[in-house]
Amino acid sequence: MMRTTKIEWTESTWNPVTGCTKISAGCANCYAERMAKRLRAMGQPNYENGFKVTCHAHALGQPLTWKTPRVVFVNSMSDLFHEDIPDDFIRLVFDVIKRAHWHRFQVLTKRDERLSDLAPRLEWPANLWMGVSVENKLAKQRIKSLRAVPATVRFLSIEPLLESLGRISLVGIHWVIVGGESGPGARPMEEAWVLEVKRQCDAAKVPFFFKQWGGVNKKKAGRLLTGRTWEGVPAVP
Description:
Blueprint: E1 12-14, E2 17-18, H1 31-41, E3 54-55, E4 71-74, H2 87-99, E5 104-109, H3 112-118, E6 128-133, H4 141-147, E7 153-158, E8 175-179, H5 191-204, E9 208-212, H6 218-221
Parallel strand pairs: 1-4, 4-5, 5-6, 6-7, 7-8, 8-9
Antiparallel strand pairs: 2-3
């Protein structure tokens, strides 16, 4: 595994866009915003605009230079379906994903309405996995939008899990990731909420990945659930 990121469910990150704006409860303590401010202070050129949405055309070809296959999280520092990103730039990102067919790309959004609007007008490469964030009951409506997207793998990132989600429809969903919030001001996550999701994944035979408990000291809290790690992933070619 060629791991270049600490994000447990992927191997590398690729940021053709940086910057975002808050849209829902899960955004309150955004790690990307904190990191962008730090990188700007360090003089990193891609962050000279801080956390303002910025497209980086020069970064588009980066995955094509990585010859060893890897799993790539797209826009860990942004949201590819943000309203300030032009449709044509999103198409360029999708084109690179198609051309870099030896990698597996993971795209995650909170903006399900724009995803629904653009999905029929995009070409969906077989190596693109599409996900939505679901942090509370209000955000469950994003799952319905995701279900209609013609991606090879559709996944849920239930992080930060802020409350019991109750019943979740996992029809058409291929993977579920659950995690607690980490860093300053982290909101607590209860074990019962996590197990409630896991039971539904087990019943629906959907792979379950437990990312972390989170908290201010993420490393100390660890990622054991019922005494073990859970790292289920979809079985795809």
